[in-house]
Amino acid sequence: MASLGKAENTTMLIRISVLGLATFVLLLSAIERPATAGASQESGGVVTFYKDVLPILQKNCQSCHRPGQIGPMSLLSYKEARPWTKAIKTAVVTKKMPPWFADPRYGHFNNDRSLKPAEIETLVAWADSGAVEGNPKDAPVPIRWPADGWQIQPDVFVDLPPYSVPARGVKEWEQLAIPSPFLEDTWVTSVEVLPGQPAVVHHFCFNFEKHKPTTDYNVYEWMEVPRDEDGVSKDRVRGVDTKEGIVIRREVGSTEETRRPGQQTIRGGNQFCYLPGLPYEDYRPVNAGVFVPAGSDIVMSLHYTPNGAAVIDRTRIGFTVAKVPPAKRFVPQDGEEGENAPVVRRHAIRELAIPPYESNYLGPAAEITFLKDLELVWFRPHAHMRATSVQYKLTYPDGREEIVLNVPRYDFNWQLTYRTSLKIPKGSRMHVEFRYDNSANNKYNPNPGKWVYYGDQSWEEMGTPNIGFLVDRGTDEDFKNRR
């Protein structure tokens, strides 16, 4: 596709912001700020790396800060961590790291990676006292991280066809269908997506769907959207998507392309997703899984964002499978429809239209109605560069209201999942609000003088209140009807 000027520059900004982080950390390393509180160890001794600091890094940092992961430096050893002492201090004092944005006054999240005040004091004291190494005998047992970049140790693998990502330009969301590797009915208990080129990946999301005879495998398909110099769709008027002038391009292999008018033949869902900071889904800790009928297709939605260097991406997907059926069945918010749907969502997000220079714009609210008793196990709010906050408020059948998640400082760079265990009775309703800053005060805003509408690209906007939940597994007869 041809270069689109400002939109292209915005794309590069996004990728640097999302995955680069190195410039940010280098800047932090040059800054020395006073500690917010003087640390005092209970033992009264000197704070050392092996005894005091390494346990904190293992628990909160090393999942990202190790070779092959998203962190720009490894923090596995003293030798690796020592040059970043000042950066570590500044990042934890300002609460830039570890990334965690849930308001602690609301909800309880079992993957809360935020540091406790005492842990922050320990890291600050270590930096201020010269980053003493200490005795290696005091070190905790090293974590045995999975080899080859995998975190779930898959039982089954699927390889996507290679994809050429150009150095510049705008890539629309693409759709891809590949055959499922499961020839028999299977319970999938965890999923991990391992991109070959994570720096250019905005997201991969997919569903398992019943095979259609018309489906072509290994063919990337996307809508070609007319855009202006800022990358904004010319077919959007005050937030209304007219779909005029859009054609479908289908890429067969790496070179052959055909065009035809009309609708896309496939559309990936969000049953499973890869996002920056969210490489895998694991239902094993809650004894749950996803039922995959034999012969299903994997239907994906992919979004690449060029960052200045042409690359070829070779992505793999790994699955673990249950030997015996789990007790619970995981269902994403839009995973089932019709009479089987556990929830109904009403959300006029496609009407989103943020005025220029508006610093605190309230987007269209989402209303989710729960049609069955269920257990909510995660929140995953998704928006783009101008989103500043999101709040989920639950109203129970008896009228009681409860804020179950409040994110007052939404950060597009980190698409976090907030894992919980919340029993929700039938008849409850959830109200979800996103707020946006389209002013010059938003450092991520590429153009505060423009109206911003709903759209797929990161300089457009979204406000998706994703949730995931568990329901009873059901009977064998239920699953016969799903084939």
What keywords describe this structure?
Jelly Rolls; nine-stranded mixed sheet; globular; single chain; 483 residues; alpha+beta; disordered N terminus; 28 strands; 7 helices; seven-stranded antiparallel sheet
The tally of beta strands, per DSSP, is 28
- Which outline best applies? globular
| CATH level 3 topology of the largest domain | Jelly Rolls
**Which structural class do you get from the secondary structure elements?**
alpha+beta
Largest sheet features: 9 strands, mixed
List the helices and strands and how they pair.
Elements lengths: L5 H15 L1 H8 L19 H12 L17 H4 L3 H9 L23 H12 L27 E4 L3 E3 L8 E6 L6 E9 L6 E9 L9 E6 L11 E2 L2 E2 L5 E6 L3 E6 L10 E3 L5 E3 L5 E5 L4 E8 L6 E3 L2 E6 L6 E5 L10 E5 L5 E2 L6 E2 L3 E5 L3 E9 L4 E9 L5 E7 L10 E7 L4 E8 L15 E2 L10 E9 L3 H5 L3
Parallel strand pairs: 13-17
Antiparallel strand pairs: 1-16, 2-15, 3-6, 3-14, 4-12, 4-13, 4-16, 5-11, 5-14, 6-9, 7-8, 9-10, 17-28, 18-21, 19-27, 20-26, 21-26, 22-25, 22-28, 23-24, 23-26
